[in-house]
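Exercise: predict the structure of this protein bound to thymidine-5'-diphosphate.
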Amino acid sequence: MKKGVFISLEGPDGSGKSTQLTQMKMLLDKKGYNCVATREPGGTVISEKIRGLVLDKEYSEMDCRTEALLYAAARAQHVAEVIKPALERGDVVICDRFVDSSIVYQGYGRKLSREKVAAINEFAIAGCMPDMTFLFKLDPEIGKSRIEAGTRDRLESELTEFHSEVFRGYEEMEKLYPSRIVGIDAGGSVDEIHSKVAWHLEMLLKEKYDACRY
Ligand code: TYD
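Solution:
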């Protein structure tokens, strides 16, 4: 039975999610919560191996269905080995990217369709969905310019059109799931963004953990 709170962070490449994840983890540690900070693709030995495969620029021949299934496979292992056990213990889990990344990158970016990508992921996550998702909204071109050209992985190296579709996907998801997805303007300073995130986080934790006491 799930007792913890599950939060995912989403946004285009270079939107500052990872910096915000570090800040959130520090805040929760300070407040005395047991907090697990993790990332996708990755988070377990098997999932990190899949990450190496799926992000390697060598494999330009990778079919987009293979890509979608690999992300889903990495996620299934991550959920089973890390996320679900942590939620069962009552921990707060913060995950840098989760199922929405697959929906927008593979569903919209690769044009596999939102429904098809959602279906394979439904199987992979076995009902384990985030309680809240922070969507860091930043023009994908600005995001891309923050990542040095030589260090871009297979997905980050995609063309502008791909990243525009990804962003369009995020905006549609935000409209479709307004009670779960919280859009945050990622154009401000790290502190400004963090204080907005912290406010929503506090509300969520209050609601979830206080409700468990009764
Ligand atoms: P990463 O270096 O972790 O990027 P970021 O710091 O922006 O999160 O690389 C992950 C890349 O994989 C990123 O370009 C998004 C992509 N991705 C998908 O296409 N589908 C997915 O399901 C996930 C989790 C990531």
